[in-house]
Amino acid sequence: MRTMDGSVWVGLAGPLVGTMIGGGLSIWASVVAQNRQTKAARDLRKEEKSEAAADEAITQLYVIRQRARDFPQERGGWEAWQTELSRLAAEMEPAVLRLRDDALRTQIEEVLGYMDMIYDLTDYPVHRGSLMLPSEVCRYGLDCLGAAVRNRPLPAPSAAILKAREIDAFIREQMEMSRQEAEG
Fold this sequence. Notes:
Largest sheet: none
Number of strands: 0
Strand content: under 5%
Oligomer: single chain
C-alpha cells in the first residue's frame, strides 16, 4: 500500500479548512439574520399593541368627552353625571397603562384625574370654571393621543388644561389651609 506524501495532505487540508470556515460563517450569518428578524417582529408587535392601546384610549376618551358635554340641566343630576364621568375615566385606565410614551401617559392620566373634579371645574362663581371645561380638558387629551398616533410631539398645554391646573392648585391650597386651621 502506498502512503500519501505531505503535499497531498496539504492539498486536502486547504479546501477542508476553507469549507469549515465558510460553513461556520454561513451558520453565524444565519443566526444573526434570524435574531434580527425576531427582534424586528417583536418590535412590530410592541408597536401594534401600542397603537391599539392609543386607538382604544382615543375611543374611550371621545366617549368621556361626549358625556362631559351632556351636562345635566338641573343640579340634582350632577352627582350622577360626575359618577358616570368618574366611572368612564376608571374604565379607561387599563388602556392608558398600555401607552408606551411616558409623557403621553402622564398627560392622559392628568386629564382623567380632572374627571373627578367636575364640580370644581364647572363652578364659575368660585373658580371661574365653566360647564364646557371638562369637555375641553378631554379635547386636550384627544389632541395628545392624536399627536402620538401620528408620531408628532405632544401639543402644548391648552387653555383648558391650564385652567384645570389652576383650579386644582387653588383647591389644594384651600385644603392645606383648612388642614392647618384644624391643627391650629
